[in-house]
Amino acid sequence: MKWTILVIAGLFEVAWAIGLKYSQGFIKLVPGIFTIVGMIASFCFLSLALKSLPLDTAYAIWTGIRTIGTVILGIVLFKEPITIIRLICIGFIVVGIAGLKLVSH
Question: What stretches pass through the bilayer (predicted)?
Answer without folding.
Answer: 27-50, 57-78, 84-103
